[in-house]
Amino acid sequence: MFQRFKNFRKLRKWYVVKLKLVDARLYFVSIFVGLLTGLVAVPYHYCLYYFFNLRSEFFASRPEWYWHIPLFLFFWAVLIFVSWLVMKMPLITGGGIPQTRAAINGRITYKHPFIELVSKFFGGILSVSAGLSLGREGPSVQIGSYVGCLVARWTRILRGERKQLLAAGAGAGLAAAFAAPLASSLLVIESIERFDAPKTAITTLLAGVVAGAVASMVFPVNSYHLIQVAEPGFSFGIQVKYFLLLAVIISVCGKLYSMMMVSFKRVYATVKSSVYMKMFYLLLVAYIISFMQVNLTGGGEQFLLEQAQSGSHAPIMWVTAMMLLHFGFSVICVSSGLPGGSFIPTLVTGGLLGQIVGLLGVEYGVIEPENVSYVMLISMSAFLVAVIRTPLTAIVLITEITGHFEVFYPSVVVGGLTYYFTELLQIRPFNVTLYEDMINTPAFQEQTRYKLSIEVMTGSYMDGKLVDELSLPENCTIINVHRDGKDAKPPGIRLIPGDQVDIELDAQDIEKLYEPLVSLANIY
């Protein structure tokens, strides 16, 4: 008996060393994922800007009326084609963050990742180029997860480590979209993987840094860095009141924003109308807005940057009208289900809301005109907190992409207050709502049992335990242990670090049991 225990300790010590070598390989592969994601997502970002500028120049040139007819028909055909792609490949719909989370959790499997990646790439470019108010961040995240899936297949990575490559690719996608590697890693932890494992954080950060470096080479000038920020010189008491008021306004508006987005998306799906007519009306709205203010289309980011750089004396009523117009247009575009995210439209709405509050502060003598952009940046991060409920991501992202650290501490204060008020108002995170709507569809309800693969870490609860001794939640069963490239039947096996354990459970319980089951094999 003692000899068996001694042999097990020697075996365990060897597997701990081997596990460290495997981890090193995983980190190297994650760097490769970041590079590939950057080489795909950065051209995606570049194409969006290129075609948006072409479209803007066309409307700015005031061509003869008859030139608009073929262009309108062309964009109509484009949107119909993209709708057909979404119908054939439902996973490319919308932003892609809920689908990425489902893929990491194992709820869905990318059966044709390369074809879906190409469809998401061109579908997103075509949708935004037609003038729809959609963002680039969600598609970039999903494109990264497709790259992670492909690399996992090519490198034959361990099953329990596939989610790390999917998460690394997702974070690299956001880093490529904003050149913000730190915020991208936080987004994965807060909104996608939702389990603070150091291995996931490290792989995501490594991939994000590489993808962000690729983005910085292609876009050496960050437009957000051109925003000039001047910190107000008001007293502490006035500062507290102003920030408290700003948090209340953002929370209430965030509640309305979330309700409208979710409600309209559900109503849109029930509208008895052909795809042709839906796309016709959607494009018609985009075209009318393009005649009025072309920078409000394509997500509205250019309009936001324009206001942040030179909108300190804009009329309040005009900014309010533009914000409401952009918001209504974004609701329709996001509800359509075409490839494109809601992150940029949310950011724009939050920034314009901050501009309105800033201009009101100027009117009542609380702040100076040069302080309006300061309030806008704080409002952008706080509004993301209200709608998406990722406080760390929102605060770090705004600080990282603008380079203005003077807005970091006010963003923490206003973001923290906003998070508290959104709890009182019971605002559900938008991406969580989309995720739950997705898994409650008939296709997901047909799933009865689900297999979760986890990796045993050194010093965890499972480390050194016999499979027969483990106490798992109800209806959870260990069906396989993968060690040294071989599968083994669980009874009688004593687990050691590096073992890949397959647990079968009821499909409807995965969202509740994912973190508890992973924590059994994890020490963090």
Automatic annotation (TrEMBL):
Q: Which GO terms describe its cellular component?
A: plasma membrane
Q: How does it sit in the membrane?
A: Multi-pass membrane protein
Molecular-function GO terms, alphabetical: monoatomic cation transmembrane transporter activity; voltage-gated chloride channel activity
Which organism was this protein described from?
Answer: Bacteroides cellulosilyticus CL02T12C19
Q: What is the name of the protein in this document? A: RCK C-terminal domain-containing protein
Q: Where is the RCK C-terminal domain?
A: 439-519
Keywords from the named record: Chloride, Ion transport, Membrane, Transmembrane, Transmembrane helix, Transport
> Where would you find the membrane-spanning parts of this chain?
21-45, 65-87, 165-189, 201-221, 242-264, 276-296, 316-337, 343-362, 374-398
Any coiled-coil ranges, and where? Answer: none
Cellular localization per UniProt: Membrane
A Gene Ontology biological process in which this protein takes part is:
potassium ion transport
Quote the PROSITE patterns the UniProt record gives.
RCK_C
